[in-house]
């Protein structure tokens, strides 16, 4: 896998999607999804200018981050168990997967212990898939004020994982609904939210056209993951 070639292609596709939507390509941040990738792949991407990586499991990230350049930033993009919050608060610059008020409270408590303010995104299960985590859209609005009021939490926006579709146009309504929900959240809070994290390797161009400010790309940038899956976080 030639990461340099892949990066060039992805950046061209982002620029083209932004041009179609009348957006500035600089407004879209690439999160290179490094779950299942060894540290040497992360280091190779870092040498090409990638500085933000996404991990799904706290345990895998803890083992990998120390093997990579200290200047890199890391986001947690996978489901977070409450008993992993302490490590997550220490390891990550942002937690993109807050999916309950109880989890937000636990993150807040851990952040308080480290005298740290934790940027987060609220994960929304827009399509209502039973196999995925995330808030139902209406519940976000019901609990957003309480999450936002937690003193060590900063709500920076929303995140979603769209259903798999061979035709990315089929998930455009999911991305559009998240953008609309962001507007509803901003009206509720009386303040802007900076980010919409949506779009992955198979559908990111549609997500960009619908307003994504962060796209989470794994195979499109770093190539296929190793066949062996990393162990899930234990208790």
How are the secondary structure elements laid out?
Layout: H1 3-21, E1 29-33, H2 39-47, E2 52-55, H3 58-65, E3 73-76, H4 85-91, E4 94-98, H5 101-113, E5 118-123, H6 137-149, E6 153-159, H7 172-189, E7 195-197, H8 204-209, E8 214-217, H9 219-222
Parallel strand pairs: 1-2, 1-8, 2-3, 3-4, 4-5, 5-6, 6-7
Helix pairs in contact: 4-5, 6-7
Any low-confidence stretches, pLDDT <50, length ≥5? 228-232
What is the N-to-C order of secondary-structure elements (H for helix, E for strand)? HEHEHEHEHEHEHEHEH
Give the total of domains: 1
How large is the share of residues in beta strands? 15-25%
Largest sheet: 8 strands, parallel
Notes on the structure:
41% of the residues lie in helices and 16% in strands. By secondary structure, the chain is of the alpha/beta class. The protein has one domain (3-220): Alpha-Beta Barrel (TIM Barrel). Strand 5, helix 6 (137-149) and strand 6 (153-159) form a beta-alpha-beta unit. It is globular and about 45 Å long. Mean pLDDT is 95; it is low at 228-232.
């Amino acid at each position: 896998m030639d990461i340099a070639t892949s990066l060039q292609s992805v950046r061209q596709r982002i620029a083209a999607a932004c041009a179609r939507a009348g957006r500035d390509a600089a407004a879209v941040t690439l999160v290179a999804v490094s779950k299942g990738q060894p540290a040497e792949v992360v280091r190779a991407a870092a040498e090409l200018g990638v500085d933000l990586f996404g991990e799904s499991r706290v345990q895998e990230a803890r083992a990998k981050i120390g093997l990579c350049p200290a200047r890199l930033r890391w986001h947690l993009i996978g489901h977070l168990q409450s008993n992993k919050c302490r490590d997550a608060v220490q390891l990550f610059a942002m937690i993109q997967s807050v999916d309950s008020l109880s989890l937000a409270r636990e993150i807040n408590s851990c952040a308080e212990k480290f005298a740290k303010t934790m940027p987060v995104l609220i994960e929304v299960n827009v399509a209502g898939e039973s196999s995925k985590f995330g808030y139902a859209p209406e519940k976000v609005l019901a609990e957003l004020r309480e999450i936002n009021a937690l003193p060590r939490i900063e709500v920076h926006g929303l995140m979603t994982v769209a259903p798999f579709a061979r035709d990315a146009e089929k998930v455009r309504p999911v991305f559009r609904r998240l953008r609309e929900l962001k507007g509803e959240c901003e009206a509720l809070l009386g303040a802007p939210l900076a980010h919409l994290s949506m779009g992955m390797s198979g559908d990111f161009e549609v997500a960009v056209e619908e307003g994504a400010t962060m796209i989470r790309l794994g195979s499109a940038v770093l190539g296929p993951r190793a066949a062996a899956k990393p162990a899930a976080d234990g208790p």
